[in-house]
């Protein structure tokens, strides 16, 4: 069946706009709740709350247009907390990562404590572009999950409690298969369609992609239907099979290519025979899937800073800077698995 601990009916990513210091308490409580839902043992829920509190305090005090995203890890057990902003960037990053470093007037205070507590910490910062942080927290026997070169964020439309989008990713042998689902419209009925599609995916994620998409079409007939994008990553290459408005893009530090979208139609309502499109994935390349809740214009001229982002920070950047607030938004990014020995 593949290697994944994704919940069969996952909740959407918790999104907290840090526009006031009162958001710090909310961030801490949300992090504790997500950690408990992920069944992190012992004191780890409290440590998750500390990480979120430190990151939110940093944003509240020093950043511009800051936000946190909190959720279970897309692969394996554990959780992750993203911080994103459009602030001034961190000038002395290595100094800020020293435990005990503190400052009252610049971005970066508390990052040393976050680095000490988190299983892994990934940061990219640039003047004028802002700062992106991903802190992952796992149980001691799950630390490999924190190193996966995968990122995924699924945020509901503003004023909605449930997301009509959904996503999942599963490793099987040397391959990695991902799905992004965009239920028609948004709200509870769209969310129902998305979850029906996810349950179908998890029954046999290693099936040939046309078979998977055909199974989605059958499963979604009693729902309002959905757009679906399926991605299979192999070392050095990828396959895409989709219907509707889920887009795929390949990003390298120097280039953006393989802009594809699904065949016309809606899974569950009307679908032509699915076809697979194959394309190469250069060394160090990242392949993205995203719903139309991410404004496709982000790909017209991404900055060099965006080109160089690893998958977790890439999804945080797109969700923070290019989300369409009135729609559910999902973005998933992954690199092929390294060749197995």
From TrEMBL:
Pfam family for this entry, one: HATPase_c_2
InterPro entries: HATPase_C_sf, HATPase_dom, PPM-type-like_dom_sf, PPM-type_phosphatase-like_dom, Ptase_RsbX
Gene3D superfamilies in UniProt: Histidine kinase-like ATPase, C-terminal domain, PPM-type phosphatase domain
Occurrences of domain PPM-type phosphatase (ranges): 145-336
Protein name per the record: SpoIIE family protein phosphatase
